[in-house]
Write a structure and sequence with these properties.
The complex is a heterodimer of chains A (about 240) and B (about 400). With about 240 residues, chain A is α/β, with parallel strands linked by helices. Helices cover about 35% and strands about 30% of the residues of chain A. Chain B has 13 helices and ten strands. In chain B, helix 2 packs antiparallel against helix 9, helix 2 crosses helix 11 and helix 9 crosses helix 11. The radius of gyration of chain B is 33 Å and the shape is elongated. The two termini of chain B are about 25 Å apart. At the A-B interface, helix 2 and helix 3 of A face helix 1, helix 10, helix 11 and helix 13 of B.
């Protein structure tokens, strides 16, 4: 296990309760989880096991009902909505199953969106977008809209967007779910390259082949960690 | 988020759904155009009346028989009956006032003019020689009524352009005899065509000496005494002196109303100004409706773009940034709608002026400013609610929607 000082994410005693009518649903129950900097974690489990809720909590899109969440040693559950937005902006990148590109914006504009929201100067944005387009092999697609791009290209735009603010953590929710196997392979390789360069990568999936690639697998069931295993083989 | 980026993002979002954007801009523009055109009509009516009154002549004081209790001008004064006649001698006496340059008694009645079998009902105005200059009338032919004793006028007549055309056609009118009732008049002059003169079209009048008119209509009282002050500053003095002289002549009783042209003008100005404001208010209702439409459009936009809003939040967009993006979009819809409406309104007013060249249909500046201001304000006010709704969306729920 990793030492506390090295932890990027430290969840302890986290609860998340949803109210559906009269009944209470414990999406997460007494969850403890620590993830170190630079780790590659696959969160797996059946539907309703709480893996998406976990991802939302880690990504500061949702707040725990109870428990503590330290991100880079800082308690982030007590931050205001605006402060959480700033943390998301600078430390966390999201990759979604359905890409979530803004349809009226071009590939370049979609990639620049986080920088625009962070208020970065247009000149700086242009340089970084140009570099990202080149890195992800999208240079000739810069002025295409999402509808003019293939699924793989769309997800590459989404990954470029997730990394443009140079976050410490990338959260990917079923990143290959809408892609064919070959294209999915290519997308996963891109994410793994990012991880190789030191970015912490958390992938939520129920694709076992994809989960098997991660060095650490967290298997969830009924809102708690059922099994937490680290591959012996270091690739 | 930088302001320029907020603006660019809002423009992109508005352009992203052109039909929705066009419709809400159209609603806003119709509201503003209504304000501009209706106030142009109202203010045009005000200017038209003022212009007409100004063309009556300048520095004029008007003496009416009868007394209104409150003073000032009201239409009731025109028809009030007096116990004591306002006479030609009163008019003559007013001439003695130091502030008075000229005075003319006016008597009015209807008569039928006949020339060689042609017959025309005409308003006969009985007055004296000075009336021509006081009212700034121009003669087309001949001369106006001669300078003579006001009590013993000659049987002569000056006719308006339309009367001449209808009675004489292409034949010369000067020197011809015209029968009016049981009297005969010699035509000595024809007025130049001047167009409308506040309900009384001088083209359709016939002028005769005041003494003869009073005999024809079998009356001693006058319709008006028109008094001209020596200069603009003497108007008040002329009014006071005329009133004092007539009061002295009427056994100390104030049974006439003396009004100045300024008072009449001020009254019409006020009445028609109020009318314009009222009309603008009615038109402003359409602006409020347009504002509500903008709100609807923005609410639909928030619903349609829920996933996008969730994404913006996930990418680090703050509530403030999302709020200002949506508010800016609402403001843009209103602003461009308002400008479009302003252009439409100006075009409408121009069409009105083209169709009715004598009618000065220009929208007043205050109405234009108020119209544009109200449009922007309603757009912003009704934009706040959708913008807040967008900013407060739960990102998890918003992202799940697609």
């Amino acid at each position: 296990m990793t030492s506390v000082n090295d932890a990027l994410i430290d969840l302890s005693g986290v609860e998340r309760v949803f109210h559906l009518g009269d009944s209470e649903v414990h999406a997460l129950h007494e969850l403890d989880l620590g993830i170190a900097r630079g780790e590659y974690v696959a969160v797996m489990g059946p539907s309703g096991s709480g893996k998406s809720t976990l991802l939302n909590l880690v990504g500061l899109l949702d707040r725990p009902t109870a428990g503590r969440y330290l991100l880079e040693g800082r308690d982030v559950t007590t931050l205001s909505a605006e402060e959480q937005a700033r943390v998301r902006s600078h430390r966390i990148g999201f990759v979604f199953q359905s890409f979530h590109l803004v349809p009226r914006l071009t590939a370049a504009e979609n990639i620049a969106l986080p920088m625009m929201l962070a208020g970065i100067a247009p000149k700086e944005r242009a340089t970084r977008v140009a570099q990202a387009l080149k890195d992800y092999g999208l240079a000739d697609r810069a002025h295409h809209r999402p509808e003019q791009l293939s699924g793989g290209q769309r997800q590459r735009v989404a990954i470029a967007r997730a990394t443009i603010m140079r976050p410490a953590l990338i959260l990917a929710d079923e990143p290959t779910g809408n892609l064919d196997r070959a294209t999915g392979e290519e997308v996963v390789r891109l994410l793994e390259e990012l991880n190789a360069r030191g970015v912490t990568l958390i992938i939520v999936t129920h694709d076992h082949a994809l989960g098997a690639r991660a060095r650490r697998r967290v298997l969830m069931q009924d809102g708690a960690v059922l099994r937490d295993e680290v591959s012996a083989v270091i690739r | 988020m930088r302001n320029i980026d907020v603006l660019r993002f809002a423009i992109g979002a508005a352009a992203g759904s052109p039909l929705r954007t066009l419709l809400s801009m159209l609603a806003m523009s119709i509201g503003v155009a209504a304000v501009v055109v209706l106030t142009a009509l109202g203010d045009g009516a005000r200017r038209y009346v003022i212009d007409q009154f100004s063309s009556l002549g300048t520095n004029l004081v008007i003496v009416l028989p009868g007394r209104s209790a409150t003073g000032g001008f009201s239409p009731a004064n025109v028809v009030t009956q007096t116990p004591r006649d306002l006479t030609v001698d009163d008019a003559r006496a007013v001439l003695r006032a130091p502030a008075v340059l000229r005075a003319a008694p006016v008597s009015v009645g209807n008569a039928e003019l006949t020339v060689g079998g042609k017959l025309r009902a005409t308003i006969i105005v009985g007055t004296v020689a000075g009336y021509l200059d006081m009212r700034r009338f121009e003669l087309a032919q001949g001369s106006f009524l001669p300078e003579e004793d006001w009590s013993h006028g000659s049987p002569v007549m000056v006719i308006g352009g339309k009367v001449r055309r209808e009675l004489f056609g292409a034949e010369p009118a000067i020197g011809r005899l015209v029968r009016a009732g049981d009297r005969r008049f010699r035509v000595i002059g024809v007025l130049a065509t001047s167009g409308m003169g506040l309900g009384m079209n001088t083209d359709e009048l016939a002028f005769v000496p005041v003494s003869i008119a009073q005999q024809m209509f079998n009356t001693n009282t006058l319709f008006r005494i028109i008094v001209e002050a020596r200069h603009r500053d003497a108007i008040a003095a002329a009014k006071a002196q005329a009133q004092a002289i007539i009061k002295a002549r009427h056994e100390g009783e104030e049974d006439v109303t003396v009004i100045t042209q300024d008072a009449v003008l001020a009254t019409f100005d006020r009445v028609l100004g109020t009318l314009t404001v009222g009309v603008a208010g009615i038109a402003a209702i359409s602006l409020a409706v347009a504002g509500i439409l903008v709100m609807n459009v923005m609410l639909v936009s928030v619903t349609q773009r829920t996933a996008e809003i969730g994404l913006l939040k996930a990418l680090g967009g703050t509530q403030a940034a999302i709020r200002s993006a949506f508010l800016t979009e609402a403001a843009l819809l209103s602003a461009f709608g308002a400008l479009l409406g302003y252009a439409l309104g100006l075009a409408g007013a121009a069409v009105l002026r083209y169709l009715y060249p004598t009618f000065p249909a220009y929208p007043p500046d205050w109405a234009v400013l108020a119209g544009l201001g109200t449009a922007l304000a309603t757009g912003l006010v009704f934009g706040v609610m959708p913008a807040r709704r967008a900013a407060r969306l739960d990102p998890v729920v918003a992202l799940a929607k697609r």
